[in-house]
């Protein structure tokens, strides 16, 4: 109104000169302000008419605290905040924030959600940092899920030690609440936790007919007998991930029995905590039984061993499909890989030493006829041997990640020439990976 009054005064002052033009200017200003106000009201109206499905989709991307803030905007948004569909799949992020306000807000808000929506939660994961407080908060929430019937549960530690620092009795008690009350768990990821054999028996007793995926690497309180109990009773298992010390001939034979469905993925972490650690040997007959029962299963093996600890491995044929060496591995071991891993699909070697792997790479190309992906880090291979390897594997090499420092120029190829020759055999443009200069 003040602007309009000022405009009218300006119009009166100039009326002696050109009254029609001044009136037009005032009317134009009023019209523009009216249109801006109408557009703003229209925008608010559009947000109010946002379809419920779209509103739910937006809410699903918001962290818990932001969802709570959004629910206070209007009645419709508050209704969306409490719709069962919003809480079927949820991740509890339990990091320790710097703000004490967030620390005070999150537990109360989580209690409200559990009280109202515990029977709606089905696909739940807990992401915690390395602090014991975060892991204990996760256990407290698990203990409250009495009315839940979870289908999936994931306990994710973004950094160690996390759950391993929680008193074992507290963790087991909280996990048992879920195992007893769910009765329909199909996916369970509990890596780096103090889960033990008795708790696995509770899991089997209540969820044996539904469990399909179990990931439990780095669980020191579980014994081979505990994981064998799971394999004996959970006949629908499709994916299994565990440490090598839990792998046994009895376990493979149990997974190969007629009553068991075909396993699709078996991941084994072979980790050495101390140099010189002893590792047992798995019989070839046990692996053969596994392949006969599940001929298409993927065997993924991650090795984090010292060079002198590979004695029990790759002396006989092993049906590994994906092989990763996280520490230095000798030429001898890679030579055995070329002879005894005919199902190999992917190979990653992070380090080898300063002796070229020419013969070993050619042997792998010759015997591992399904190899389609390879990565080499701190190794050495002559350019000629590498070209020969690519020529033997042909265009089935869909992934070829080789650091430039790996390739050693020789009398036949230089580093400037090799990418043309390799590209020709791959059927696509290829360059070696380069180490960033920063």
TrEMBL record:
InterPro entries: F-box-like_dom_sf, F-box_dom, LRR_dom_sf. It is found in: Cytoplasm; Nucleus. Transmembrane segments: none annotated. Residues 1-29 are annotated as: Disordered. Its main location: cytoplasm. Keywords: Biological rhythms, Cytoplasm, Leucine-rich repeat, Nucleus, Repeat, Ubl conjugation pathway. It comes from the Eukaryota. GO terms for cellular component: mitochondrion; nucleus. Residues 44-90 form the F-box domain. GO terms for biological process: circadian sleep/wake cycle; regulation of circadian rhythm. Gene3D superfamilies: 1.20.1280.50, Ribonuclease Inhibitor. This is F-box and leucine-rich repeat protein 3a. It comes from Seriola lalandi dorsalis.
């Amino acid at each position: 109104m003040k602007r309009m009054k000022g405009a009218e005064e300006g119009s009166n002052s100039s009326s002696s000169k050109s009254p029609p033009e001044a009136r037009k200017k005032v009317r134009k200003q009023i019209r523009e302000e009216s249109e801006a106000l109408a557009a703003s009201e229209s925008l608010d109206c559009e947000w109010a008419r946002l379809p419920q499905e779209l509103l739910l989709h937006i809410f699903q991307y918001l962290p818990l605290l932001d969802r709570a803030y959004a629910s206070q905007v209007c009645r419709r948004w508050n209704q969306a905040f409490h719709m069962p569909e919003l809480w079927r799949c949820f991740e509890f992020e339990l990091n320790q924030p710097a703000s004490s306000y967030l620390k005070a807000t999150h537990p109360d808000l989580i209690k409200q959600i559990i009280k109202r929506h515990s029977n709606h939660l089905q696909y739940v994961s807990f992401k915690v940092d390395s602090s014991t407080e975060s892991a204990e908060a996760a256990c407290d929430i698990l203990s409250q899920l009495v009315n839940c019937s979870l289908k999936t549960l994931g306990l994710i530690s973004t950094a160690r030690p996390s759950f391993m620092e929680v008193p074992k009795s507290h963790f087991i008690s909280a996990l048992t609440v879920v195992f007893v009350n769910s009765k329909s768990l199909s996916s369970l990821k509990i890596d780096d936790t103090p889960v033990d054999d008795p708790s696995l028996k509770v899991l089997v007793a209540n969820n044996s007919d539904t469990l399909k995926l179990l990931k439990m690497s780095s669980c020191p309180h579980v014994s081979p007998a505990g994981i064998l109990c799971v394999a004996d009773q959970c006949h629908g298992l499709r994916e299994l991930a565990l440490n090598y010390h839990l792998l046994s001939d009895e376990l493979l034979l149990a997974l190969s029995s007629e009553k068991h469905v075909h396993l699709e993925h078996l991941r084994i972490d072979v980790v050495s905590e101390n140099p010189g650690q002893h590792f047992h040997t798995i019989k070839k007959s046990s692996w053969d039984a596994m392949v006969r029962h599940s001929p298409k299963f993927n065997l993924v093996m991650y090795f984090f061993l010292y060079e002198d600890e590979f004695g029990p491995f790759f002396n006989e044929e092993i049906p590994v499909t994906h092989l990763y060496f996280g520490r230095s591995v000798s030429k001898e071991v890679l030579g055995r890989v070329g002879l005894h891993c005919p199902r190999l699909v992917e190979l990653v070697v992070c380090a080898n030493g300063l002796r070229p792997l020419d013969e070993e790479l050619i042997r792998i190309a010759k015997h591992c006829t399904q190899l389609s992906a390879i990565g080499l880090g701190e190794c050495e291979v002559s350019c000629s041997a590498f070209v020969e390897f690519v020529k033997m594997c042909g265009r089935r090499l869909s992934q070829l990640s080789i650091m430039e420092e790996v390739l050693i120029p020789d009398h036949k190829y230089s580093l400037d020439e090799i990418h043309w020759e390799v590209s020709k055999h791959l059927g696509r443009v290829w360059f070696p990976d380069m180490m960033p200069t920063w």
